[in-house]
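User: quick one, sequence for these tokens?
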């Protein structure tokens, strides 16, 4: 339970930091042409989904503490965390690759949906565990 709350809080904190970075640090690159509005929206999507995952992990941990019969496996948290890193992380890198000089990293594109699948699997596992709990 404690690990889920800590991981969720870290994700939320980093989401706020990265959201502020997008609003204040990346905005100037829109004018320079290194970023487009779409890239900025993709970056913000990564931060938003990271926030959702962090809140979800904290809620899961709190639910597990309130309902001892809800025996969440560590894989629930692992899938959400891995999915968030892959999904949001790849969006951050894809959106800023021209700014940070990673134009050749075209292989990042397929990682985003893999991260989404991990997140969906984590939530699916959570649903199954709730259904099976007494």
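Assistant:
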């Amino acid at each position: 339970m404690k690990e889920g709350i800590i991981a969720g809080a870290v994700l939320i904190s980093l989401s706020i930091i990265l959201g502020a970075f997008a609003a204040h640090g990346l905005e100037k690159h829109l004018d320079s042409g290194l970023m487009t509005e779409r890239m900025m929206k993709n970056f913000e999507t990564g931060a938003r989904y990271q926030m959702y995952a962090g809140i979800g992990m904290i809620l899961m941990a709190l639910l597990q503490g309130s309902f001892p019969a809800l025996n969440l496996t560590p894989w629930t948290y692992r899938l959400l965390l891995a999915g968030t890193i892959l999904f949001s992380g790849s969006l951050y890198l894809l959106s800023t690759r021209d700014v940070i000089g990673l134009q050749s990293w075209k292989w990042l594109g397929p990682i985003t949906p893999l991260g989404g699948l991990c997140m969906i699997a984590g939530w699916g596992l959570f649903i199954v565990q709730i259904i099976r709990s007494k």
